[in-house]
From TrEMBL:
UniProt EC number: 5.1.3.6
Catalytic function, reaction form: UDP-alpha-D-glucuronate = UDP-alpha-D-galacturonate
Main localization category: Golgi
Enzyme class name: isomerase
Protein name as annotated: UDP-glucuronate 4-epimerase
Gene Ontology CC: one annotated term: Golgi cisterna membrane
Coiled coil segments of this chain: none
Compartments where located: Golgi apparatus, Golgi stack membrane
Domain spans labelled NAD-dependent epimerase/dehydratase: 98-335
Assembly: Homodimer.
Organism: Solanum stoloniferum
Keyword field: Isomerase, Membrane, NAD, Transmembrane, Transmembrane helix
Family (UniProt): Belongs to the NAD(P)-dependent epimerase/dehydratase family.
Amino acid sequence: MSQMMHIDNIPSTPGKFKMEKSPYNRLRMHFSLAKLTFWSLVFLGLIFVFFYRSPASSSPVSSDLSRRSLRTSSYGGPAWEMRIKASAKVRSRNGISVLVTGAAGFVGTHVSVALKRRGDGVLGLDNFNDYYDPSLKRARQALLERTGVYVVEGDINDTTLLKKLFDIVPFTHVMHLAAQAGVRYAMENPGSYVHSNIAGLVNVLEICKSVNPQPAIVWASSSSVYGLNTKVPFSEKDRTDQPASLYAATKKAGEEIAHTYNHIYGLSLTGLRFFTVYGPWGRPDMAYFFFTRDILKGKSIPIFEAANHGTVARDFTYIDDIVKGCLAALDTAEKSTGSGGKKKGAAQLRVFNLGNTSPVPVSDLVSILERLLKVKAKRLVMKLPRNGDVPFTHANISSAHKELGYKPTTDLQTGLKKFVRWYLNYYGNGKKSAQ
Ligand SMILES: O=C(O)[C@H]1O[C@H](OP(=O)(O)OP(=O)(O)OC[C@H]2O[C@@H](n3ccc(=O)[nH]c3=O)[C@H](O)[C@@H]2O)[C@H](O)[C@@H](O)[C@@H]1O
């Protein structure tokens, strides 16, 4: 290799260059060495100043960016990428490769297991937040690991991470289930709903519109968008401009945001309006779950009552029926039409009710639990608080039936029996109880 020399002296064929010996040349050589030394020192000085004063170490924003990239680099590495590729690998003919956000959540876990078992590629993403007991999410994560689903720990707002995941896997679909759920909690922590259900959704859609190929997206909306509607059963065409909670408003906003990304970028988007989903591995913040816990503990059960002693009812929907609806939505999702952030044609935009079409009063839910647990509940009937709850939900599922072949088969008695069996097994027959 030719030694490092001043730029004018470097020959086109390294090693052929010979320095001449005359005194004038010697003087000239000393002079050019001094010049070389001087400019090298200047160059080194500039490099030092540049890195020492670089914005990454000065303004909070860019230092945050460098921190983010550091955080992302902590995700990186060949072993990590190998796990991701193995998890997302499609193992069945015509299989799909799905990024499931909120994979350690209740619906996310069941959907991920079902996809993996039928040979699809599945990669999970979850931030394992502490909205409810994170140990339950970790237990679901262990279950997923046993079925071959890797769950990356991260937030849907982490753009760098999401981009990295799409660099590693060309996902054909995104099952976007990560969200701040819960109607009543919105009055305690409104920011969490904006962070996850608005900013988080937009971030996921921003990534999806800019990757090639664009995935098709199926995401969790909510029956709560029907808000104060009195016309029952609720149909997808009914008004949804009267949300009764911030949670419902963020889900409604999500449906409007989906329309925008479909219209501008050609993203294929399907919103699923879940109706009070319940079942094994469920959410401790939901009534069926904490009623079970509190009946076993002998604590009072607050049963909400509508005005004039009206019953409060829900169209409770068993998780296995919901999973079938989710997979049918994925399988019937058309491809997105955009590429490089540009739409090439009209893209599919859908919304479906996924309910059970048979609302049950909350008081009946408690009676079923009493029979299954063989413990009398301490009922405390109270007026429906102004906390975002609505008196009833009832799904018209004819559209999901027609387009997705959706047909719920599990009644509340059967579904709760399966839930109670799981609950007693998981918490050790009520000795160890949910927090
Ligand atoms: O259908 C949906 O989209 C929503 O279903 C549930 O929301 P919710 O129906 O309020 O479910 P729970 O919180 O389990 O309440 C079930 C019923 O019990 C009632 N309830 C709740 C709590 C309580 O202390 N007492 C009581 O009677 C509620 O008013 C409601 O009628 C989920 O929590 C939401 O994330 C989901 O989006």
